[in-house]
Amino acid sequence: MKKSIVVLIMLSLTLVLLLPLGSISAFADTATTKTYSDVTLSGGYQAGNFPEVWDLTCGDLVITSTVDLNGMKDLSGAHAWSELGLRNVGAGNFNPAVGSGVWLATDYDWTVGTFGPDPVGAPTLDMDDKLILQRRGGFGEGDYDLPSTPPTPGNNHRVWFDRDGVDQSQALSPLAINGGTYNTLGKYNVVLTLHANGDTTGTAYMTINNLNQGFETDGDWNTMELTPAGMTFTGNMKQMQVFYGIYGYGATHIAEYQNISVTGCPCVIKVTADAQTKVYGEADPDPLTYACDTQGVTFNGALDRADGEDVGEYAIGKGTLSAVGYTIDFVEADLNITPKGITVTADPQTKVYGEADPPLTYTYIPALVDGDSFSGELIRDTGEDVGTYKINQGDLDAGPNYSIDFVGADLTINKPVVLTVTAITPSSLGNGKGTDCHKRAAVTISGFNFVPGAKVVIVQSGVLHPKKLPVKVTFISADGSTITCNLNLTSAAPGLYDVVVTNPDKTTATLAAGLTVNPHPVVAKPHTRYSGKIGTSPVSLTLTGTYFVSGATVKLTKGSFPDIPVSNVVVSADGTTLTCDLDLTNAHLSFYRGVVTNPDGGIGTFHFIGTK
Fold it and tell me: Do 238 and 358 belong together in one domain?
Protein backbone atom coordinates (compact mmCIF):
# COMPACT_ATOMS: atom_id res chain seq x y z
CA MET A 1 0.00 0.00 0.00
CA LYS A 2 1.01 3.61 -0.49
CA LYS A 3 2.37 5.44 2.50
CA SER A 4 0.93 8.64 3.97
CA ILE A 5 1.97 11.75 2.08
CA VAL A 6 1.68 15.34 3.42
CA VAL A 7 0.15 17.53 0.74
CA LEU A 8 -1.41 20.89 -0.08
CA ILE A 9 -0.03 24.37 0.33
CA MET A 10 -1.95 27.25 1.95
CA LEU A 11 -2.74 30.08 -0.43
CA SER A 12 -4.22 33.51 0.10
CA LEU A 13 -5.51 34.21 -3.42
CA THR A 14 -9.17 33.24 -4.02
CA LEU A 15 -10.99 33.24 -7.36
CA VAL A 16 -14.77 32.75 -7.18
CA LEU A 17 -16.25 30.94 -10.16
CA LEU A 18 -19.58 32.25 -11.43
CA LEU A 19 -21.58 29.14 -12.17
CA PRO A 20 -25.22 28.69 -13.25
CA LEU A 21 -27.30 27.55 -10.29
CA GLY A 22 -29.67 24.63 -10.27
CA SER A 23 -32.99 24.46 -8.47
CA ILE A 24 -33.82 23.85 -4.81
CA SER A 25 -36.17 20.90 -4.44
CA ALA A 26 -37.58 21.58 -0.94
CA PHE A 27 -38.06 24.27 1.68
CA ALA A 28 -36.10 25.23 4.79
CA ASP A 29 -36.41 23.00 7.86
CA THR A 30 -36.60 19.91 5.61
CA ALA A 31 -33.96 17.99 3.68
CA THR A 32 -33.23 20.06 0.60
CA THR A 33 -31.23 18.95 -2.41
CA LYS A 34 -29.31 21.50 -4.44
CA THR A 35 -27.69 20.46 -7.71
CA TYR A 36 -24.89 22.38 -9.37
CA SER A 37 -23.33 22.55 -12.78
CA ASP A 38 -20.02 20.77 -13.22
CA VAL A 39 -16.96 22.56 -11.92
CA THR A 40 -13.80 22.33 -14.01
CA LEU A 41 -10.76 23.60 -12.16
CA SER A 42 -7.50 24.29 -13.96
CA GLY A 43 -4.24 25.78 -12.89
CA GLY A 44 -2.10 26.98 -11.40
CA TYR A 45 -4.62 28.01 -8.86
CA GLN A 46 -8.37 28.30 -9.02
CA ALA A 47 -10.96 28.15 -6.22
CA GLY A 48 -14.49 29.19 -5.34
CA ASN A 49 -17.59 28.27 -3.41
CA PHE A 50 -21.32 27.86 -3.89
CA PRO A 51 -23.42 30.64 -2.33
CA GLU A 52 -25.83 28.45 -0.37
CA VAL A 53 -25.28 28.32 3.39
CA TRP A 54 -26.13 25.08 5.21
CA ASP A 55 -27.08 24.30 8.79
CA LEU A 56 -25.80 20.90 9.94
CA THR A 57 -27.48 21.19 13.34
CA CYS A 58 -30.89 20.44 11.83
CA GLY A 59 -29.77 17.41 9.78
CA ASP A 60 -26.84 15.65 8.09
CA LEU A 61 -25.28 17.19 5.02
CA VAL A 62 -24.38 14.90 2.09
CA ILE A 63 -22.13 16.07 -0.75
CA THR A 64 -21.91 13.81 -3.82
CA SER A 65 -19.80 14.25 -6.94
CA THR A 66 -18.05 12.33 -9.67
CA VAL A 67 -14.41 13.36 -9.49
CA ASP A 68 -12.34 13.12 -12.68
CA LEU A 69 -8.62 13.38 -11.96
CA ASN A 70 -7.26 12.46 -15.41
CA GLY A 71 -6.20 16.05 -15.98
CA MET A 72 -3.77 15.95 -13.05
CA LYS A 73 -0.45 15.81 -14.89
CA ASP A 74 2.30 13.31 -14.09
CA LEU A 75 5.04 15.27 -15.80
CA SER A 76 8.46 15.70 -14.30
CA GLY A 77 8.60 18.84 -12.16
CA ALA A 78 4.82 19.20 -12.06
CA HIS A 79 2.23 18.36 -9.45
CA ALA A 80 -1.24 19.44 -8.27
CA TRP A 81 -3.86 18.95 -5.56
CA SER A 82 -7.60 19.57 -5.54
CA GLU A 83 -10.28 19.92 -2.86
CA LEU A 84 -14.05 19.74 -2.44
CA GLY A 85 -15.74 20.13 0.93
CA LEU A 86 -17.33 22.25 3.57
CA ARG A 87 -16.04 25.33 5.37
CA ASN A 88 -17.26 28.19 7.54
CA VAL A 89 -18.82 31.19 5.85
CA GLY A 90 -16.01 33.61 5.13
CA ALA A 91 -13.18 31.03 5.36
CA GLY A 92 -10.78 30.46 2.47
CA ASN A 93 -11.64 28.34 -0.56
CA PHE A 94 -8.45 26.27 -0.49
CA ASN A 95 -6.99 24.81 2.67
CA PRO A 96 -9.41 26.72 4.93
CA ALA A 97 -8.09 27.70 8.32
CA VAL A 98 -7.83 24.97 10.93
CA GLY A 99 -11.10 24.65 12.82
CA SER A 100 -13.29 25.88 9.99
CA GLY A 101 -14.43 22.70 8.21
CA VAL A 102 -13.57 19.42 6.51
CA TRP A 103 -13.05 18.42 2.89
CA LEU A 104 -11.98 15.85 0.30
CA ALA A 105 -8.37 16.38 -0.75
CA THR A 106 -6.90 14.65 -3.83
CA ASP A 107 -3.29 13.80 -4.59
CA TYR A 108 -1.56 11.38 -6.95
CA ASP A 109 1.73 9.51 -7.41
CA TRP A 110 3.44 7.57 -10.15
CA THR A 111 5.59 4.47 -9.72
CA VAL A 112 5.27 2.47 -6.50
CA GLY A 113 6.62 4.11 -3.37
CA THR A 114 7.79 7.42 -4.87
CA PHE A 115 6.57 10.94 -4.79
CA GLY A 116 7.58 14.29 -6.29
CA PRO A 117 9.34 16.36 -6.89
CA ASP A 118 9.30 14.01 -9.87
CA PRO A 119 12.74 12.87 -11.07
CA VAL A 120 13.81 13.85 -14.52
CA GLY A 121 12.74 11.25 -17.05
CA ALA A 122 10.29 9.47 -14.77
CA PRO A 123 8.06 7.08 -16.74
CA THR A 124 4.38 7.76 -17.24
CA LEU A 125 3.44 4.56 -15.51
CA ASP A 126 1.47 3.34 -12.55
CA MET A 127 -0.67 6.42 -11.77
CA ASP A 128 -2.21 6.17 -8.34
CA ASP A 129 -4.76 8.66 -6.97
CA LYS A 130 -5.12 9.53 -3.34
CA LEU A 131 -8.47 10.67 -1.95
CA ILE A 132 -8.56 11.52 1.77
CA LEU A 133 -10.48 13.57 4.28
CA GLN A 134 -8.71 16.65 5.62
CA ARG A 135 -9.51 19.07 8.41
CA ARG A 136 -6.25 20.98 8.11
CA GLY A 137 -4.22 21.62 4.99
CA GLY A 138 -1.10 19.55 4.47
CA PHE A 139 -2.01 16.67 6.82
CA GLY A 140 -2.71 13.10 5.76
CA GLU A 141 -4.16 9.88 7.10
CA GLY A 142 -2.87 10.48 10.60
CA ASP A 143 -5.79 12.87 11.20
CA TYR A 144 -8.37 10.11 10.83
CA ASP A 145 -9.74 9.46 14.33
CA LEU A 146 -12.99 7.54 13.75
CA PRO A 147 -13.76 4.98 14.94
CA SER A 148 -10.27 5.50 16.40
CA THR A 149 -6.90 6.80 15.35
CA PRO A 150 -5.17 4.20 13.11
CA PRO A 151 -2.05 2.81 14.79
CA THR A 152 -0.28 2.73 11.42
CA PRO A 153 -1.84 5.39 9.18
CA GLY A 154 0.23 4.20 6.21
CA ASN A 155 -1.54 0.82 6.27
CA ASN A 156 -4.49 2.28 4.46
CA HIS A 157 -6.97 1.03 1.95
CA ARG A 158 -9.49 2.87 -0.11
CA VAL A 159 -7.35 5.91 0.38
CA TRP A 160 -5.01 5.18 -2.50
CA PHE A 161 -6.51 4.03 -5.83
CA ASP A 162 -4.81 2.61 -8.91
CA ARG A 163 -5.74 4.73 -11.92
CA ASP A 164 -4.28 2.69 -14.82
CA GLY A 165 -4.14 -0.96 -13.69
CA VAL A 166 -0.32 -1.12 -13.90
CA ASP A 167 0.31 -1.90 -10.22
CA GLN A 168 -0.33 -5.64 -9.98
CA SER A 169 0.26 -5.68 -6.22
CA GLN A 170 -2.88 -3.62 -5.85
CA ALA A 171 -4.76 -5.82 -8.26
CA LEU A 172 -3.80 -8.96 -6.33
CA SER A 173 -4.83 -7.65 -2.92
CA PRO A 174 -7.76 -9.56 -1.37
CA LEU A 175 -9.33 -6.16 -0.81
CA ALA A 176 -8.95 -5.07 -4.45
CA ILE A 177 -12.05 -4.40 -6.56
CA ASN A 178 -11.56 -3.90 -10.26
CA GLY A 179 -12.89 -0.46 -11.16
CA GLY A 180 -13.35 0.27 -7.48
CA THR A 181 -9.85 0.32 -6.03
CA TYR A 182 -7.68 -0.42 -9.09
CA ASN A 183 -7.98 0.30 -12.77
CA THR A 184 -10.37 3.15 -11.90
CA LEU A 185 -9.52 5.12 -15.04
CA GLY A 186 -9.13 8.19 -12.82
CA LYS A 187 -12.86 8.67 -12.06
CA TYR A 188 -14.36 8.37 -8.60
CA ASN A 189 -17.88 8.54 -7.25
CA VAL A 190 -17.44 10.37 -3.94
CA VAL A 191 -19.99 10.76 -1.15
CA LEU A 192 -19.16 12.98 1.85
CA THR A 193 -21.50 12.53 4.83
CA LEU A 194 -21.20 15.23 7.47
CA HIS A 195 -22.93 15.19 10.84
CA ALA A 196 -23.03 17.86 13.56
CA ASN A 197 -22.49 16.70 17.12
CA GLY A 198 -23.16 20.22 18.42
CA ASP A 199 -22.88 23.82 17.29
CA THR A 200 -19.10 23.61 16.76
CA THR A 201 -18.16 19.92 16.33
CA GLY A 202 -19.00 17.28 13.79
CA THR A 203 -18.00 14.00 12.15
CA ALA A 204 -17.15 13.28 8.51
CA TYR A 205 -17.16 10.00 6.54
CA MET A 206 -16.45 9.47 2.87
CA THR A 207 -17.22 6.62 0.48
CA ILE A 208 -15.39 6.30 -2.82
CA ASN A 209 -16.96 4.18 -5.55
CA ASN A 210 -19.45 3.00 -2.92
CA LEU A 211 -16.61 1.71 -0.72
CA ASN A 212 -15.88 2.77 2.86
CA GLN A 213 -12.40 3.98 3.67
CA GLY A 214 -10.41 2.00 6.20
CA PHE A 215 -7.10 0.93 7.71
CA GLU A 216 -5.38 -2.47 8.05
CA THR A 217 -4.23 -3.07 11.62
CA ASP A 218 -3.35 -6.82 12.00
CA GLY A 219 -0.80 -7.07 9.15
CA ASP A 220 -2.44 -9.83 7.07
CA TRP A 221 -3.93 -7.42 4.49
CA ASN A 222 -6.91 -9.68 4.06
CA THR A 223 -9.35 -7.42 5.87
CA MET A 224 -9.68 -3.83 6.96
CA GLU A 225 -10.08 -3.88 10.69
CA LEU A 226 -10.60 -0.13 11.14
CA THR A 227 -13.55 0.72 8.89
CA PRO A 228 -15.52 2.75 8.07
CA ALA A 229 -12.86 5.35 8.82
CA GLY A 230 -13.65 9.02 9.29
CA MET A 231 -12.66 12.02 11.31
CA THR A 232 -14.02 14.64 13.66
CA PHE A 233 -13.87 18.28 12.68
CA THR A 234 -14.77 21.69 14.07
CA GLY A 235 -16.42 24.80 12.73
CA ASN A 236 -19.65 26.74 12.88
CA MET A 237 -22.10 23.94 12.16
CA LYS A 238 -24.92 26.42 11.67
CA GLN A 239 -23.24 28.24 8.78
CA MET A 240 -21.27 26.19 6.28
CA GLN A 241 -20.65 26.54 2.54
CA VAL A 242 -19.43 24.06 -0.06
CA PHE A 243 -16.13 25.08 -1.62
CA TYR A 244 -13.76 23.74 -4.25
CA GLY A 245 -10.23 24.48 -5.44
CA ILE A 246 -7.07 23.36 -7.20
CA TYR A 247 -3.46 24.23 -6.72
CA GLY A 248 -0.63 23.02 -8.94
CA TYR A 249 2.69 23.89 -10.47
CA GLY A 250 4.84 22.97 -13.48
CA ALA A 251 1.90 22.47 -15.86
CA THR A 252 -1.76 23.26 -16.44
CA HIS A 253 -3.60 20.75 -14.30
CA ILE A 254 -7.29 19.97 -14.50
CA ALA A 255 -9.64 18.49 -11.90
CA GLU A 256 -13.28 18.01 -12.78
CA TYR A 257 -16.08 17.81 -10.22
CA GLN A 258 -19.13 16.52 -12.04
CA ASN A 259 -22.74 15.81 -11.03
CA ILE A 260 -22.39 17.82 -7.82
CA SER A 261 -25.32 17.70 -5.45
CA VAL A 262 -25.73 18.75 -1.83
CA THR A 263 -28.52 17.51 0.43
CA GLY A 264 -29.14 19.09 3.81
CA CYS A 265 -30.86 21.91 5.65
CA PRO A 266 -30.44 25.39 4.23
CA CYS A 267 -29.35 27.91 6.83
CA VAL A 268 -32.33 29.97 7.92
CA ILE A 269 -31.67 33.51 9.00
CA LYS A 270 -34.15 35.74 10.79
CA VAL A 271 -34.73 39.07 9.12
CA THR A 272 -36.81 41.49 11.15
CA ALA A 273 -38.22 44.59 9.54
CA ASP A 274 -37.50 47.78 11.46
CA ALA A 275 -40.59 49.59 12.64
CA GLN A 276 -40.83 52.87 10.77
CA THR A 277 -42.68 56.11 11.18
CA LYS A 278 -43.37 59.02 8.95
CA VAL A 279 -45.50 62.11 9.18
CA TYR A 280 -48.60 62.36 7.03
CA GLY A 281 -47.71 63.91 3.69
CA GLU A 282 -44.00 62.98 3.81
CA ALA A 283 -42.27 60.43 1.59
CA ASP A 284 -41.71 56.92 2.92
CA PRO A 285 -38.37 56.17 4.60
CA ASP A 286 -36.14 54.94 1.81
CA PRO A 287 -35.13 52.25 2.06
CA LEU A 288 -37.33 50.33 4.47
CA THR A 289 -34.65 48.90 6.73
CA TYR A 290 -34.34 45.62 8.57
CA ALA A 291 -32.10 43.75 11.00
CA CYS A 292 -30.58 40.32 10.49
CA ASP A 293 -29.49 37.92 13.22
CA THR A 294 -26.52 36.83 11.08
CA GLN A 295 -23.58 38.99 10.09
CA GLY A 296 -21.92 39.11 6.70
CA VAL A 297 -25.03 38.30 4.64
CA THR A 298 -25.44 39.82 1.17
CA PHE A 299 -28.99 40.92 0.43
CA ASN A 300 -30.72 41.74 -2.82
CA GLY A 301 -34.09 43.36 -3.41
CA ALA A 302 -36.10 45.48 -1.01
CA LEU A 303 -38.96 45.40 1.45
CA ASP A 304 -42.38 46.77 0.59
CA ARG A 305 -45.42 47.90 2.59
CA ALA A 306 -49.18 47.89 2.40
CA ASP A 307 -50.72 50.70 0.36
CA GLY A 308 -52.15 53.81 2.00
CA GLU A 309 -51.21 57.37 2.92
CA ASP A 310 -53.70 58.29 5.67
CA VAL A 311 -52.74 58.20 9.34
CA GLY A 312 -52.53 54.60 10.54
CA GLU A 313 -50.35 51.47 10.59
CA TYR A 314 -49.26 49.69 7.43
CA ALA A 315 -47.60 46.26 7.43
CA ILE A 316 -44.02 46.11 6.13
CA GLY A 317 -43.58 42.96 4.04
CA LYS A 318 -40.66 40.98 2.65
CA GLY A 319 -41.17 42.33 -0.85
CA THR A 320 -38.37 41.23 -3.19
CA LEU A 321 -35.77 40.87 -0.44
CA SER A 322 -33.52 37.82 -0.76
CA ALA A 323 -30.30 36.75 0.94
CA VAL A 324 -27.50 35.22 -1.07
CA GLY A 325 -27.10 31.65 0.14
CA TYR A 326 -29.70 31.84 2.91
CA THR A 327 -33.37 31.14 3.44
CA ILE A 328 -35.13 34.08 5.12
CA ASP A 329 -37.46 33.76 8.08
CA PHE A 330 -39.09 37.17 7.82
CA VAL A 331 -40.67 39.03 10.74
CA GLU A 332 -42.96 41.84 9.75
CA ALA A 333 -43.21 45.28 11.33
CA ASP A 334 -45.34 48.34 10.74
CA LEU A 335 -44.90 51.69 9.10
CA ASN A 336 -46.79 54.09 11.32
CA ILE A 337 -48.05 57.23 9.61
CA THR A 338 -48.53 59.85 12.30
CA PRO A 339 -50.60 63.04 12.11
CA LYS A 340 -48.93 66.08 10.65
CA GLY A 341 -48.46 68.65 13.36
CA ILE A 342 -49.59 72.16 12.54
CA THR A 343 -49.50 75.22 14.76
CA VAL A 344 -52.60 77.39 14.56
CA THR A 345 -52.13 80.81 16.13
CA ALA A 346 -55.12 83.00 16.87
CA ASP A 347 -54.75 86.68 15.93
CA PRO A 348 -55.19 89.10 18.86
CA GLN A 349 -58.35 91.20 18.55
CA THR A 350 -59.72 94.37 20.15
CA LYS A 351 -63.00 96.19 20.24
CA VAL A 352 -64.56 99.05 22.17
CA TYR A 353 -67.26 98.27 24.66
CA GLY A 354 -70.64 97.95 22.95
CA GLU A 355 -69.31 97.12 19.48
CA ALA A 356 -69.80 93.80 17.64
CA ASP A 357 -66.98 91.24 17.73
CA PRO A 358 -64.46 91.37 14.88
CA PRO A 359 -63.89 88.14 12.85
CA LEU A 360 -61.73 85.72 14.84
CA THR A 361 -58.89 85.01 12.41
CA TYR A 362 -55.76 82.87 12.63
CA THR A 363 -52.54 81.88 10.91
CA TYR A 364 -50.98 78.42 10.66
CA ILE A 365 -47.71 76.68 9.80
CA PRO A 366 -46.69 74.53 7.99
CA ALA A 367 -48.95 74.39 4.95
CA LEU A 368 -51.56 71.66 4.63
CA VAL A 369 -51.11 68.84 2.15
CA ASP A 370 -52.52 69.74 -1.25
CA GLY A 371 -56.26 69.22 -1.31
CA ASP A 372 -56.75 69.44 2.46
CA SER A 373 -58.53 72.31 4.23
CA PHE A 374 -59.86 73.51 7.60
CA SER A 375 -63.40 73.26 8.88
CA GLY A 376 -65.08 74.95 11.84
CA GLU A 377 -64.18 78.23 13.50
CA LEU A 378 -62.63 79.82 16.59
CA ILE A 379 -64.64 80.94 19.60
CA ARG A 380 -63.96 83.22 22.57
CA ASP A 381 -64.85 83.27 26.25
CA THR A 382 -68.24 84.89 26.88
CA GLY A 383 -68.61 88.41 28.24
CA GLU A 384 -69.15 91.98 27.09
CA ASP A 385 -67.74 94.01 29.94
CA VAL A 386 -64.41 95.76 29.65
CA GLY A 387 -61.67 93.18 29.97
CA THR A 388 -59.72 90.45 28.23
CA TYR A 389 -61.38 87.32 26.85
CA LYS A 390 -59.44 84.28 25.69
CA ILE A 391 -59.78 83.19 22.08
CA ASN A 392 -60.08 79.37 21.90
CA GLN A 393 -59.86 76.72 19.19
CA GLY A 394 -63.57 76.01 19.13
CA ASP A 395 -64.43 73.41 16.49
CA LEU A 396 -61.65 74.44 14.11
CA ASP A 397 -60.18 71.23 12.65
CA ALA A 398 -58.17 69.99 9.65
CA GLY A 399 -59.22 66.34 9.79
CA PRO A 400 -57.79 63.13 11.30
CA ASN A 401 -54.49 63.42 9.40
CA TYR A 402 -53.50 66.50 11.39
CA SER A 403 -52.64 67.29 14.98
CA ILE A 404 -53.31 70.92 15.86
CA ASP A 405 -51.16 72.75 18.39
CA PHE A 406 -53.35 75.73 19.12
CA VAL A 407 -51.86 79.00 20.35
CA GLY A 408 -54.58 81.20 21.76
CA ALA A 409 -54.82 84.95 21.87
CA ASP A 410 -57.09 87.51 23.51
CA LEU A 411 -60.00 89.67 22.52
CA THR A 412 -59.66 92.86 24.52
CA ILE A 413 -62.76 94.98 25.21
CA ASN A 414 -61.58 98.52 25.93
CA LYS A 415 -63.46 101.22 27.77
CA PRO A 416 -63.49 104.88 26.85
CA VAL A 417 -60.28 106.64 27.89
CA VAL A 418 -61.04 108.04 31.36
CA LEU A 419 -59.11 108.16 34.64
CA THR A 420 -60.06 105.14 36.78
CA VAL A 421 -58.97 103.74 40.16
CA THR A 422 -59.72 100.01 40.48
CA ALA A 423 -57.85 98.80 43.58
CA ILE A 424 -55.39 99.49 46.37
CA THR A 425 -53.02 96.75 47.55
CA PRO A 426 -52.96 95.82 50.35
CA SER A 427 -56.53 96.85 50.97
CA SER A 428 -56.40 96.19 54.72
CA LEU A 429 -53.79 97.50 57.15
CA GLY A 430 -53.37 97.74 60.95
CA ASN A 431 -53.18 101.28 62.25
CA GLY A 432 -50.42 100.58 64.79
CA LYS A 433 -51.65 103.35 67.01
CA GLY A 434 -49.38 103.86 69.98
CA THR A 435 -46.59 101.78 68.32
CA ASP A 436 -43.92 102.31 65.73
CA CYS A 437 -45.79 100.13 63.20
CA HIS A 438 -46.86 101.37 59.75
CA LYS A 439 -45.40 104.81 59.92
CA ARG A 440 -44.46 104.13 56.27
CA ALA A 441 -46.79 101.46 54.87
CA ALA A 442 -46.16 100.85 51.14
CA VAL A 443 -49.28 100.47 48.99
CA THR A 444 -49.93 100.14 45.25
CA ILE A 445 -52.93 101.84 43.59
CA SER A 446 -54.16 100.22 40.36
CA GLY A 447 -56.25 101.75 37.60
CA PHE A 448 -56.08 103.43 34.20
CA ASN A 449 -54.63 106.60 32.74
CA PHE A 450 -52.50 107.73 35.66
CA VAL A 451 -50.28 110.61 34.52
CA PRO A 452 -46.90 111.65 35.95
CA GLY A 453 -47.52 114.30 38.56
CA ALA A 454 -50.79 112.71 39.70
CA LYS A 455 -51.66 113.28 43.37
CA VAL A 456 -53.17 110.78 45.80
CA VAL A 457 -55.48 111.55 48.71
CA ILE A 458 -56.69 108.86 51.12
CA VAL A 459 -59.52 110.17 53.21
CA GLN A 460 -62.00 108.74 55.69
CA SER A 461 -65.13 107.46 54.02
CA GLY A 462 -68.62 108.49 55.20
CA VAL A 463 -67.39 110.70 58.08
CA LEU A 464 -68.74 114.18 58.73
CA HIS A 465 -65.34 115.64 59.30
CA PRO A 466 -63.04 113.20 57.43
CA LYS A 467 -59.34 113.04 58.11
CA LYS A 468 -56.74 112.45 55.46
CA LEU A 469 -53.84 110.06 55.79
CA PRO A 470 -50.36 111.35 55.07
CA VAL A 471 -49.45 110.05 51.58
CA LYS A 472 -46.20 110.25 49.64
CA VAL A 473 -46.26 109.19 45.95
CA THR A 474 -43.04 107.35 45.08
CA PHE A 475 -43.66 105.94 41.58
CA ILE A 476 -46.11 106.09 38.66
CA SER A 477 -45.74 103.34 36.04
CA ALA A 478 -45.04 104.32 32.44
CA ASP A 479 -48.25 102.66 31.25
CA GLY A 480 -50.31 104.66 33.72
CA SER A 481 -51.71 101.59 35.46
CA THR A 482 -50.10 101.80 38.93
CA ILE A 483 -49.10 104.35 41.53
CA THR A 484 -46.83 103.32 44.41
CA CYS A 485 -46.93 105.38 47.58
CA ASN A 486 -46.19 105.30 51.30
CA LEU A 487 -48.83 105.84 54.01
CA ASN A 488 -48.26 106.93 57.60
CA LEU A 489 -50.84 105.08 59.71
CA THR A 490 -49.48 105.99 63.14
CA SER A 491 -52.48 108.12 64.01
CA ALA A 492 -54.97 106.62 61.58
CA ALA A 493 -58.42 105.98 62.97
CA PRO A 494 -59.81 102.53 62.24
CA GLY A 495 -62.39 102.41 59.47
CA LEU A 496 -62.92 102.73 55.72
CA TYR A 497 -61.02 105.18 53.52
CA ASP A 498 -61.62 106.50 49.99
CA VAL A 499 -58.71 106.51 47.53
CA VAL A 500 -58.71 109.62 45.32
CA VAL A 501 -56.34 110.21 42.37
CA THR A 502 -56.11 113.58 40.61
CA ASN A 503 -54.15 114.05 37.36
CA PRO A 504 -52.37 117.33 36.62
CA ASP A 505 -55.28 118.25 34.28
CA LYS A 506 -57.55 118.21 37.35
CA THR A 507 -59.44 115.08 36.27
CA THR A 508 -60.25 112.96 39.30
CA ALA A 509 -61.15 109.34 40.00
CA THR A 510 -62.18 107.80 43.33
CA LEU A 511 -62.17 104.23 44.71
CA ALA A 512 -64.79 104.54 47.45
CA ALA A 513 -64.05 102.69 50.69
CA GLY A 514 -61.10 101.01 48.99
CA LEU A 515 -58.85 100.85 52.08
CA THR A 516 -59.66 99.40 55.48
CA VAL A 517 -57.61 100.52 58.48
CA ASN A 518 -57.85 98.00 61.30
CA PRO A 519 -57.21 98.65 65.00
CA HIS A 520 -53.99 97.18 66.32
CA PRO A 521 -54.12 94.37 68.87
CA VAL A 522 -54.25 95.53 72.46
CA VAL A 523 -53.08 93.43 75.39
CA ALA A 524 -55.06 94.22 78.53
CA LYS A 525 -52.75 95.43 81.28
CA PRO A 526 -49.65 95.24 79.07
CA HIS A 527 -47.40 96.17 81.97
CA THR A 528 -48.57 93.23 84.03
CA ARG A 529 -45.65 90.88 84.30
CA TYR A 530 -46.70 87.65 82.75
CA SER A 531 -44.33 84.98 84.05
CA GLY A 532 -43.23 81.37 83.75
CA LYS A 533 -40.73 79.07 85.44
CA ILE A 534 -37.47 78.83 83.54
CA GLY A 535 -36.11 75.40 82.61
CA THR A 536 -39.62 74.02 81.89
CA SER A 537 -41.60 73.31 78.73
CA PRO A 538 -44.29 73.78 77.67
CA VAL A 539 -45.53 76.70 79.71
CA SER A 540 -49.02 77.90 78.75
CA LEU A 541 -49.50 81.65 78.30
CA THR A 542 -52.92 83.35 78.02
CA LEU A 543 -53.28 87.00 76.94
CA THR A 544 -56.50 88.95 77.09
CA GLY A 545 -57.28 92.10 75.21
CA THR A 546 -58.90 93.22 71.98
CA TYR A 547 -58.41 92.95 68.25
CA PHE A 548 -56.43 89.74 68.29
CA VAL A 549 -56.72 88.22 64.79
CA SER A 550 -56.38 84.57 63.75
CA GLY A 551 -52.89 84.05 62.35
CA ALA A 552 -51.28 86.43 64.82
CA THR A 553 -47.74 85.66 66.00
CA VAL A 554 -46.11 86.04 69.43
CA LYS A 555 -42.47 86.91 69.99
CA LEU A 556 -40.51 87.14 73.29
CA THR A 557 -37.18 88.95 73.06
CA LYS A 558 -34.43 90.05 75.44
CA GLY A 559 -31.50 91.99 74.05
CA SER A 560 -28.86 89.60 72.72
CA PHE A 561 -30.39 86.56 74.40
CA PRO A 562 -32.09 83.99 72.18
CA ASP A 563 -35.84 84.48 71.72
CA ILE A 564 -38.10 82.22 73.74
CA PRO A 565 -39.62 79.63 71.35
CA VAL A 566 -43.39 80.05 70.98
CA SER A 567 -45.82 77.50 69.49
CA ASN A 568 -49.52 76.63 69.21
CA VAL A 569 -50.81 80.22 69.01
CA VAL A 570 -54.65 80.20 69.14
CA VAL A 571 -56.93 83.27 68.93
CA SER A 572 -60.53 83.17 70.14
CA ALA A 573 -63.32 83.85 67.66
CA ASP A 574 -64.14 87.22 69.23
CA GLY A 575 -60.49 88.32 69.19
CA THR A 576 -60.30 88.91 72.94
CA THR A 577 -58.12 85.98 74.01
CA LEU A 578 -54.82 84.61 72.71
CA THR A 579 -53.18 81.43 74.06
CA CYS A 580 -49.80 79.90 73.24
CA ASP A 581 -47.13 77.55 74.57
CA LEU A 582 -43.66 78.73 75.63
CA ASP A 583 -40.48 76.67 75.75
CA LEU A 584 -38.59 78.01 78.78
CA THR A 585 -35.96 75.28 78.76
CA ASN A 586 -33.16 77.73 77.98
CA ALA A 587 -34.86 80.93 79.14
CA HIS A 588 -33.09 83.34 81.47
CA LEU A 589 -34.12 84.68 84.83
CA SER A 590 -34.90 88.06 83.31
CA PHE A 591 -37.49 90.40 81.77
CA TYR A 592 -38.59 89.80 78.14
CA ARG A 593 -40.47 92.09 75.75
CA GLY A 594 -43.54 90.42 74.27
CA VAL A 595 -44.97 91.41 70.88
CA VAL A 596 -48.27 90.25 69.30
CA THR A 597 -48.38 90.90 65.55
CA ASN A 598 -51.60 90.55 63.53
CA PRO A 599 -51.45 89.43 59.89
CA ASP A 600 -52.13 93.03 58.78
CA GLY A 601 -49.02 94.21 60.60
CA GLY A 602 -50.69 95.76 63.63
CA ILE A 603 -48.87 95.02 66.87
CA GLY A 604 -49.46 95.05 70.60
CA THR A 605 -46.89 94.63 73.39
CA PHE A 606 -46.68 93.13 76.87
CA HIS A 607 -44.04 92.18 79.49
CA PHE A 608 -42.91 88.70 80.50
CA ILE A 609 -40.46 87.52 83.20
CA GLY A 610 -38.75 84.19 83.68
CA THR A 611 -38.90 82.99 87.29
CA LYS A 612 -37.32 80.23 89.34
Answer: no
